[in-house]
Amino acid sequence: GxxxxxxxxxxxxxxxxxxxxxxxxxxxxxxxxxxxLAPLADGAGRVVNIGTDNGSxxxxxxxxxxxxxxxAAGGNNGYxxxxxxxxxxxxxxxxxxxxxxxxxxxVAVLDGGAAGNYFLNTTRANAAGDxxxxxxxxxxxxxxxxxxxxxxxxxxxxxxxxxxASYTKTALDGLKGSDAAGGFTEVSLVYETGAxxxxxxxxxxxxxxAGGAGTVLDFDNVRFTAADSGYSQFLSHYFGxxxxxxGGSSLDPDGDGLSNRVEYFLGLDPMVxxxxxxxxxxxxxxxxxxxxxxxxDPAITEPGFELQYSFDLQSWLPVAxxxxxxxxxxxxxxxWTVEIALGTHPRAxxxxxxx
Length: 355
Prior knowledge:
The chain is mainly beta.
């Protein structure tokens, strides 16, 4: 126990705490290797009692709270081993009672209580920049779909909701491609950070029941994963690692005069020299026009990125919201075309501002 405690503190101090939610398959409580307890019999369950029963079990790794997060949630909440009384196919004589989508015999349950009650799992991992976090959960709809209480998934950073998604029975039917009743359907939620995030933003996940009394929510196989996105994904693709020393945003390893960050926004290879897009001036009936075509990566919509124009290299205005009738801006597909009426100005300038 002391070694486990010390290891957890070491990982927190190093910033290497695991993102994987503890007991995401809801097997730990009844695992002989963890608690010495055998799996529950078919149809049996353990309810977390918020009354005077001090022997009531907790669900390891999770808290079960009311919608406002201030109190323990009422209702028959905990975990159980589904049987034919809830899922016809979940009998222990068939595949050990484990339905497709389940991870072991036991699943979590929110049964009755007020609408919005939820399971909360707080990780010790902090949010990192340029990362896509994915929460995946297998949601059960019993043979009697009228009992299904709906589900809401939330991802939180430092206690604030940063991503949320809700699923009704109809939505689950669509995901499964058939009637979702009688089984489990996987749903997911993604939270993608930008180039930077505030320090010390611990991540948490919660699974809430939308319905109140008379409804239930069964779920299992909770996973929370992280993958490079944005600029980190760009570095991993071209350098093999997001921490490669050649990947600094201001560096120019191919020597073409374009920094890695600029090549990221232009959708270019940072290891192959490229010519920077150039502005051309064309003659039209209305007057002289400066035209600039920027070959942007269409997948990038990162906040803080914009194009700006100037006539004197001192005063700069954003292209997208300049309010200037002399500027025409069109962003389609993998390019951004900007046309600036020069009027009496001898030239115009365009620059990219990247976060």
